[in-house]
Amino acid sequence: MIHSVTFPLRRFRVEDDSMRPTLAPGDYVVVNRWAYRLRRPAAGDVVVVRDPEAPERFLVKRIFDVNRSRIEVVGDNEGRSRDSRTFGPIPLEEVIGKVWIRLRR
Amino acid sequence: MSLLYSLARLLDRISPAPIAYAHCDIPCGIYDPHHSQLAAHTVVRMNDLINQLEKPGTSATPEQRQEYTNKLARYLATKEQHAEMAKNEIRILWGDYFKPEHLKTFPELHDLVWKALKTASKARQEINLQAAEDLLKATNDIASIFWKTKGFETITAKAPHPTERQTVYPKYK
Known about the structure:
The structure holds two protein chains of two kinds.
Chain A: E1 9-15, E2 28-32, H1 35-38, E3 46-51, E4 54-66, E5 70-74, H2 84-87, E6 90-91, E7 95-103
Antiparallel strand pairs in A: 1-2, 2-7, 3-4, 3-7, 4-5, 5-6
Chain B: H1 3-14, E1 19-21, H2 34-52, H3 62-97, H4 100-105, H5 109-125, H6 129-149, E2 154-158, E3 166-170
Antiparallel strand pairs in B: 2-3
Helix pairs in contact in B: 2-3, 2-6, 3-5, 5-6
């Protein structure tokens, strides 16, 4: 099986509050884009996904449920998060990757 | 500051990291420019009423003066309130509804909102029909963009209010 040759790691800068206290605005996350090549996403993973309501934006959220081809995500800061509770499950193709490390000031 | 964080900051200068939004705010998703247009109509109407109000002459009785003062004070208070309402409604659309992708499609929004807020302040501060008309026009222009972002066409029609000014309405499907 040949995968397209892309560098697996990608940086993102975090904005907004929905992942507090895990992630705060200004943090960087390094995302492993190959994380789900060998295993399936699991509940509890923090992932970067495409925003279903604005495809050119990315969201960082935590998986709370996985079914066959879709995942549901929520923010850790549930009272202040727009997530699957509003936009429903996300297809696996929209998952960019799993957050591997967090860099904080 | 950790070394890796400093490294990420440095990398950002070379090639900015894309943003992963941990998006917040209660996403009620309920927005409508109508409130701002309605408030602007009221400001126009108050200017009309103030301008129609007969000023007491030198021979006016104390009762006539009192009546004039009462009416003027009520019109002014309402004008103040509604100009502020218009500003608040515009701010909500600006701060909560409009997104970066809307701005890409309608880059004039920045300037439009900026001017709308300034005009609303002027309409609030002064007895100035032109400022009120400008405010109404600004709310119409914002409404027109708002409905386009929602995928609705708009029509411009005479409002069914005493002001009878041209107003932008969505063509609901």
